[in-house]
Specification:
This protein is an alpha/beta fold and 305 residues long. It has twelve helices and eight strands. The structure holds 3-methyl-2-oxobutanoic acid. 3-methyl-2-oxobutanoic acid binds next to β6.
């Protein structure tokens, strides 16, 4: 008979509470209990493991990978197949966090049937648990349709990077009264459509605060101030891997660019100065083989003489 209580040893002195799988539904509970939600992007297996194991609740395979990983000018060029490739890699690294996949530009704007097919691919082939779609009021019907197909959706309003050409650049949104009204309408439309969360990007903190108080859906801010229910940052911004000056809202928690450059330069110097590899870093013949080899070589040398 097992003496381990039902539910394991969690809660008993000396035993940490095991971290439970984060689900789309559990995000709402976090909002209700005023528990801030942390979200980061990840685009590959190793990063996904580190981010997940550090206790980040939401892991987003953002279309920002167009710039951070693939070196495109903006997010508009990245395709469904490119996104899926990264979603699959991240899926293999994430166990506890909620895995979100960004629907890339062109994958949901043209035809609702295509949109549904593409959202389904992220779930079926990629293992995503939520798909993210940019846009508010005008996407509400489509979002309802995707949710009807049992796929949770994350909304994304404010500075929506896929609208860069319409916005005329990456500009903070909702700075005048009509902009504030539009943002509020967008947030309410997404709330009514039943999204799992709403990403608020690049909007004044006062507006983000009003939206967060108004909707039951958790809001996840990026450049939207501290009143949101959670915060998201791009992994490469957090670690100085973007080759560009950071936006106002970015806080750098480490300098991976310096770490990588120093390590790569040190390797290059060691190779050039014959300091790498050392004897300890080399494989060796077993004693008997080495002795046998020396005998053979000695015989060969004797024959040449
Ligand atoms: O693509 C992305 O990384 C995003 C976040 C900035 C929210 O959409």
């Amino acid at each position: 008979m097992s003496l381990t209580p039902i539910g394991g040893l969690a809660g008993l002195p000396g035993h940490d509470q095991p971290r439970q799988k984060v689900t789309a539904a559990s995000l709402r509970e976090r909002k209700l209990h005023h528990e801030p939600i942390a979200c980061l992007t990840a685009y590959d297996y190793a990063t996904a493991r580190l981010v997940d194991e550090a206790g980040i609740e939401m892991i987003l395979v953002g279309d920002s990978l167009a710039q951070t990983i693939l070196g495109y000018e903006n997010t508009l060029s990245v395709t469904m197949d490119e996104m899926l490739h990264h979603v699959k890699a991240v899926r293999r690294g994430v166990k506890r966090g909620l895995l979100l996949a960004d629907m890339p530009y062109g994958s949901y704007q043209i035809d609702p049937n295509d949109a549904l097919r593409n959202a389904t691919r992220f779930v079926k082939e990629g293992g995503a648990e939520v798909v993210k779609i940019e846009g508010g009021e005008k996407r509400a019907d489509l979002i309802r349709r995707i949710i009807d197909a049992e796929i949770p959706v994350a909304g994304h309003i404010g500075l929506t990077p896929q609208s860069v050409n319409v916005m005329g650049g990456y500009k903070v949104q909702g700075k005048d009264l009509s902009g504030v009204e539009q943002l509020m309408r967008d947030a309410l439309a997404l709330d009514r459509a039943g999204v799992a969360c709403i990403v608020l990007e690049g909007i004044p903190r006062e507006v983000a605060g009003m939206i967060t108080a108004e909707v039951g859906t958790p809001t996840i801010g990026i450049g939207a101030g501290p009143e949101c229910d959670g915060q998201v940052l791009v992994f490469h911004d957090l670690l100085n891997l973007t080759f560009a000056p950071p936006a106002k809202f970015v806080r750098r928690y480490g300098d991976a660019a310096a770490l990588i450059s120093d390590a790569v330069r040190a390797f290059r110097d060691d190779v050039k100065s014959l300091h790498y590899p050392s004897d300890e870093e080399s494989y060796h013949l077993p004693k008997e083989t080495k002795a046998g080899l020396e005998t053979v070589l000695a015989r060969k040398r004797a024959m040449v003489r």
